[in-house]
Amino acid sequence: MPSKERDIPLRDHPAPTGPYCSFGGSLGDDDLLKTIHHHLLSFLGRDPMRAGNREIYKALAYTVRDFLIERWVKTQKDFYAHNRKRVYYLSLEFLIGRSLGNSLINLGLYDKVAGVLEQMGYDLDEVREEEEDAALGNGGLGRLAACFMDSMATLGIPAYGYGIRYEYGLFYQRLLDGFQVEHPDNWLRYGTPWEYDRPWNLYPVKFHGRVHRYHDAEGKLRHEWVDTSEVMAMANDILVPGFRNDSVINMRLWSAKASRELDLISFNRGDYVAAVQSVVESETISKVLYPSDDIREGQELRFKQQYFFVAATFQDILRRYKKQHGTDFGRFTAEIAVQLNDTHPAIAIPELMRLLLDEEGMTWEDAWGICVQTFGYTNHTLMPEALETWAVDLFHRVLPRHLEIVYEINRRFLEEVAALYPGDEERLRRMSMIDEGPVKKVRMAHLAIVGSHSTNGVAKLHTHLQKTRIFNEFYEIYPQRFNNKTNGVTQRRWLLKSNPGLAALITESIGGDWVTKLEFLRNLESLAGNRSFQRRWLAVKRQNKQRLAALIKSDCGVAVDPDSLFDVQVKRMHEYKRQLLNILHIIIHYQRLVRGERQEAPARTVVFAGKAAPSYAQAKLIIKLINSVGETINRDPRVADRLKVIFIPNYGVSLAEKIIPAADLSEQISTAGTEASGTGNMKFALNGALTIGTMDGANVEMCDEIGRENMFIFGMDADQVEAVRRDPLRTPETVYQNNQEVRAAVDAITAGEFSRGDTALFTPIVRALLSPDDPYLFLLDLEDYLRCQEEVDREFLNRTGWARKSILNVARMGKFSTDRTIREYAEEIWGIKV
Ligand code: M8P
Question: 670 and 578 in contact (C-beta within 8 Å)?
């Protein structure tokens, strides 16, 4: 889209004449203006007098880029000079979002730039809207990786993120008649100013082929991986500045390039089309992010993506290591820690073994010792369907040598188990890295646990369930390996940047230390009962709600009342997250209002947003149901000023930054024992929303911190869920039969009341709700949820009480900063002193 062109008062400011200025410590407005002008002119090749927001964005981004690169060079030199232990964070996903605002804030340039732009006749907030989100992740797991980068930079940790530079990020979601339609996210269409191509950091990555065994000169059995096909990995760096500490680290994202050798072979044979085709095929590897969160899709391309980035990363790690130490691996584990973000990069374990055994000629024992010491593994999910496995056939075809190594790791591991539990064949079968079912599969989580010295969960409850349920037999053998690292969020993005009004009020009241030491928020506690402070607090929230109301009007065409209770559930669409529970409450509340009941309840605006995996039919149908219910309710004059239901399309980081600060109520209502941690829960509470939630994931620890009386906790806990699932007497059917309101709500869906009489459309949903085996316990938790929502209504009417709780929520969120999380990883897993 061409951006709006307009005249700007640049004529008041002479165009720069001198050479392009480099930045020292201080920077005047004039320098800044000159630099922006310089970029407008030289990079954009057009008349700066006619620049629109898009051009200003680019010029500004390039200005910031100059700042970053200078500091990055210094930071890297410093890491090198002090020979500090490095940590490599390997992740298939980094859900970065936008960078301009965040970089300006961290560099301490935001206000200055805003001022200069204003002089030029531009509004920084508007200019920032020009930036595309880098949506190189699906949801919480990828966003956590991005928050970690911010915290590692801020803590000055010598860290490197490694991942893939997907050409297409997470799909763009549009709604068509209330159904999700996916569109490609071509975020690199106009290029991005935030990356640095490193064409000289180019590594070959091998696939396929076979293993050649031979005896070397000393008679030792060696393995060589031969007859392979090759793809090149090219480095692109995205720089990540710490908060006002001059530290800049990088995320190295790999893109796939065809190997020259490969096309030359076909060209020489005169097969031009085949040559081009093979180029296209190799470059497909980094083409697109797989769009499922918590759902496994066993495609070969995904497997290749994993190995591609791991293989390139380890060549890079070894290059950096060998530059200092040659082939002496004696200092490897003292200088290198590698953290695996879930099992997605777990192929790194056999890859490091292969490099040490086959390329470096090390013994198995030595190589294995290094491997286990090097790796830490973070498990992010309890959902059995998300535990990765790869078919042995596929594994064998794509990475034959790695499969051999996995088998050998497994053989040695099972020997260990057999020695501990003689005769327990069943246990061996359960713990094996190979699932010997009809289709043989490699269990990546087992490989990751055995191949690393640390396995961590992402919240206390999650870690507890790892130890007692999913990985209990591994915990028995390696109790010292299991540990917890409760997730967090970076307050720089999720409060300072996204909620400038609240951030300013907080800083004015208790000072700005909370930006790097979130525990300082505790000082707000003493203000929680202060009437005038409460008033200002509520005024900020009101302003945020007004802004969101304007967005809803423009994106969804619905007018909502900023004084209504903003009840918000935004996250990936998934049955276990129970958007259905929310929608059932809405339907019941609607029916009560229509019957003339609950007239005393505050007006509510229920906001949903979230993407469903394109292959996840039930999640997509839930989106349709939300939209259908919304359509019915929003046009019903009987409830016009009492209830609105909104689905905002294309949820992502930037939208989250606008929605979360405006929420009164945060819905965190997963079935207990299913959400490993959640991080949205933290973002909302940090922005003063009260939580309605189950005792699941990190909600449990939020409750410990915030106090149960300041949250709305309902439903079964993880133990009760486990017990009820085995209890044949407690079924959804009994709730449906005994509770008239529940029955009326379900029947309304069945009868097509929200689908223009179509009684078939939502049958899969009704079936799920009434299924005696419903694993999510929708109806079994519904009654307590309804009770709890009535409590919310009551408390919302007491504005003083609500404000007090909101302030206390924020005051007690200090624990949930990724600064704390990263400090724990660094000290307890990586062996790095912060
Ligand atoms: C699993 C996949 C499995 C196969 C292929 C692609 C996948 C993509 C993502 C995931 C996955 O586990 N995703 C998650 S785990 N998304 C999340 O938000 C999770 O991690 C967060 C960070 O620790 C937790 O807060 C969430 O509770 C958890 O669900």
Answer: yes
Residue 654 CA, ligand 1 centroid: distance in Å: 20
Mean pLDDT (the chain) is 94
> Does ligand 1 lie within 6 Å of residue 818's CB atom?
no
Q: How many CB atoms lie within 10 A of CB 24?
A: 8
| Residue recorded with tokens 């969960």 | 457
Reported residue count of the chain is: 834
Residue 380 Cβ inside 6 Å of ligand 1? The answer reads yes
pLDDT of residue 20: 27
Q: Can you give the pLDDT at residue 2?
A: 35
Return the residue whose CA atom lies nearest to atom 15 of ligand 1: 380
- CA-296 nearest atom, ligand 1: 4
Domain positions in the chain are: 134-487+823-830, 491-816
Pocket-testing residue among 89, 93, 138, 141, ligand 1, by greatest number of atoms within 8 A of Cβ: 141
Confidence (pTM): 0.96
Q: Is 140 in the pocket of ligand 1 (CB under 6 A)?
A: yes
Q: What is the SS3 assignment for 88?
A: strand
User: What CATH class is the domain 134-487+823-830?
Assistant: alpha beta
**CB 619 within 8 Å of CB 573:** yes
Question: What pairing do the DSSP bridges indicate for beta strands 86-90 and 336-341?
Answer: parallel
**Are residues 441 and 435 in contact, defined by beta-carbon separation less than 8 angstroms?**
yes
Which residue, chain included where needed, has tokens 């106090």?
707
Record: fold of 491-816: Rossmann fold (3.40.50)
Residues tagged active-site:
380, 571-572, 577, 679, 683
- The residues, ordered by sequence, that sit 6+ positions from 63 with a Cβ below 8 Å of its Cβ are 32, 35, 36, 39
Mutational pocket test of ligand 1: of 292, 340, 380, the residue with most ligand atoms within 8 Å of the beta carbon:
380
Tell me the per-residue pLDDT of 658-692, one tens digit each, with 9 for 90 and over: 999 999 999 999 999 999 999 999 999 999 999 99
If one residue of 294, 302, 677 were mutated to test the ligand 1 pocket, choosing by the most ligand atoms within 8 A of its CB, it would be: 294
Residue 294 is predicted with a pLDDT of: 67
For residue 781, give the 3-state DSSP assignment: helix
671 φ, ψ (degrees, to nearest 5)? -60, 130
- 388 ligand 1 Cβ < 6 A: yes
Q: 510: which residues sit within 8 A by CB, 6+ positions away?
A: 520, 521, 523, 524, 527
- The response to whether residue 35 sits with its C-beta less than 6 Å from ligand 1 reads no
- What is the C-alpha separation between 331 and 338, in angstroms, rounded? 14
- To which residue do tokens 């290059």 refer? 319
Which tens digits make up the pLDDT trace of 181-219? 999 999 999 999 999 999 988 999 999 999 999 999 999
How many Cα atoms within 13 Å fall on the side-chain side of residue 107?
Answer: 31
Intra-chain end-to-end CA distance of the chain, in Å: 46
CA 833 / ligand 1 centre spacing (Å): 28
Closest ligand 1 atom to the C-alpha of 381?
15
CB of 695 shorter than 6 A to ligand 1? no
CB-neighbour burial class of residue 228 (10 A; exposed 0-12, middle 13-18, buried 19+): middle
Tokens of residue 225, six digits: 């991986």
Which pLDDT belongs to residue 15? 35
Which residue matches tokens 């990055």?
72
The DSSP code sequence of 426-461 is HHHHHH-SEE-SSS-EEEHHHHHHHTSSEEEESSHH
Q: How far apart are CA 826 and CA 834, in angstroms?
A: 7
Residues in the chain, pLDDT under 50:
1-25
Cα 84 to ligand 1 centre (Å)? 31
Q: Hey, what amino acid is at 740?
A: Q
Would the CB of 144 count as within 6 Å of ligand 1?
Answer: yes
The CB of 98 under 6 Å from ligand 1? The reply is no
Please tell me if the domain spanning 134-487+823-830 has the same topology as the one spanning 491-816.
yes
pLDDT of residue 264: 67
Side-chain-side CA neighbours of 694 within 13 Å: the count stands at 34
